[in-house]
Amino acid sequence: MPFVVAATYRVKEGEEGKVGEILQLMTPLSRQEPGCLLYQAHKSAENPRVFFLYEQYVDEAAYQTHMATSHFQRYIRDEAIPRLESRERAFYLTL
Fold first, then answer.
1. CA angle, 50 then 88 then 61, to 5°
2. How far apart are CA 80 and CA 16, in angstroms?
């Protein structure tokens, strides 16, 4: 049963361009992970400082593995998160 992550990033003013670049770097790297079924970043059509990520993994363990990758650590933990006002995540199990 796939494990789903829905994340919303609210970016600090002036950081939207850099966060967009980071997410574009993360997309192909994440999609190459063996446990990743889908990784898609979106930018709000109404607010350029809001990003939405929709991710699917084979299971929760694959998501934990994703967060331990060097690319997650470098791009998300070290570069993206410090540029955010807030980060909300919700987790789902596919029916």
1. 120
2. 10
Percentage of the residues of the chain whose pLDDT score is greater than 90 = 99
Judge whether 45 and 52 are in contact, CB under 8 Å. no
Q: What's the rounded Cα separation, in Å, for the pair 73 and 46? A: 29
Could you give the CA distance from residue 24 to residue 6 in angstroms, rounded to a whole number?
17
Tell me the whole-structure pTM to 2 decimals.
0.94
Number of structural domains found in the chain? 1
Q: Are 33 and 56 in contact (CB under 8 A)?
A: no
User: Quick check: 10 and 85 in contact, CB under 8 A?
Assistant: yes
Report whether 6 contacts 53 (CB < 8 A): yes
Enclosing domain of residue 72: 3-93
What confidence score (pLDDT) does residue 1 get?
A: 87
Q: pLDDT digit string (tens) for 69-88?
A: 999 999 999 999 999 999 99
